[in-house]
Each structure stands twice: as structure tokens, then as C-alpha cells.
Hints:
Layout: H1 3-12, H2 19-30, H3 34-43, H4 48-58, E1 68-70, H5 75-79, E2 81-82, E3 87-96, E4 107-113, E5 121-123, E6 132-140, E7 146-156, E8 159-171, E9 181-182, E10 185-186, E11 195-196, E12 204-205
Helix pairs in contact: 1-4, 2-3, 3-4
Amino acid sequence: MSDCDELLRLFQSITTTDHDALINQFSRLLQLDAATSTFFLESSNWNVETAVNMYLATAPTDAPKPEARFLSDLSAAQNAQFLPYQHIQLHLAFQNTGCIRWPINTKLAFYQGNNFSVENEMPIPCIDIGEHTQITLNVTLPGECGTHYGTWRLVSDGECFGDPVWIVLTVVDERAKESMIVDTHVMEVDEDMATYHDNMQPDMEI
């Protein structure tokens, strides 16, 4: 029997019609103050079962919520320089660090900044506790030179959870491409694609 059923069973055993007695028993069983108990009982025209259901529908719940950790290291992309309108792929990895399976409606949603021509919402697999998942963003750099940023969040039932995903990318003109220097070494970038390998995190394709 659920807690709700047990509460209803207890209240169904109340036979008194005395309002003060009802308020006292309502307050004792639900651990409420007299004013709150009076409000729900009066709102339900002193129908105890209706009052209980009204209270349970509005009472806060302690149900566990999904949690996540962002695993990917995007520093290579953040330290690189790209051409206007260049296309790259970023692989984003997440882990379920909570105590429940992610809900079936979990998605990665654009939050603020520049969306780099990425869809505003992308479905995410509802992974079990401790499991990992990965999603690929097909990014198109803006046409304007400068540093651009965008933020994405995991979302379920309209609520964000887990670490925010910050993507910071720098666009330079054609002349700056001739000498792209990152951490004192030259990084050569092909016209179409280059791939950076990270032993700790998923690859980032450019």
C-alpha cells in the first residue's frame, strides 16, 4: 500500500463532523499547522478525502532528479583558430552520475550565446546510472572574425541538470590561417578536415 493510500485509509476512519476535531486530526496526520489544515478542509467543503487529495497534489516531493557530468575536453577547439563558415564536428560525452535512469525525454538544448548553426534541441539516450553517452555537434563557424561562444544544457521536463557545456571558438581571416600557433607549436589544418586525438576524452573532428 502506498503512502497516499495509507493516508486516505486513516482519514476514512474519521467519523466526526466537528470542524475543530477535523482540523486537529488533519494537522496531526499530515504534520501541518492549523491554518494550513483549515484552508484545505474549507476549500474542499470539509470533505476529508478531497482535502487530502488537494494537499497531496500541491505538496512538494522529494523525488530524485537526474544528474550528469560533462566529460569531454574541448580545450583543443578553444585554442584553435578557424576560418569563417568552416565546418567542424565536436563530440560531447556525458555520464549519468545520479541515482536514477535519465528520463526518456532528456535532450541537449541550446541555452544562450551563438548556436553555431546547431539544432536548438537534440535527443539524448536515457542511459542508466553510471553509464556514458556521446552526441555529435555539427558546427558551422560564424562569418565574423573574433571569439564566439555558445552554451548547451541537458534538459528533462523543462528543467536543466548536469554541467553546462561551454563552446568557445575563434574565427580568423584567411591570412591568419598561414600560421596557427597553439601553445608554442604550429598546428597545421587541412582545407577540409583534421582530427585531434586526446587520450582521456573522445576525439574532436574538425
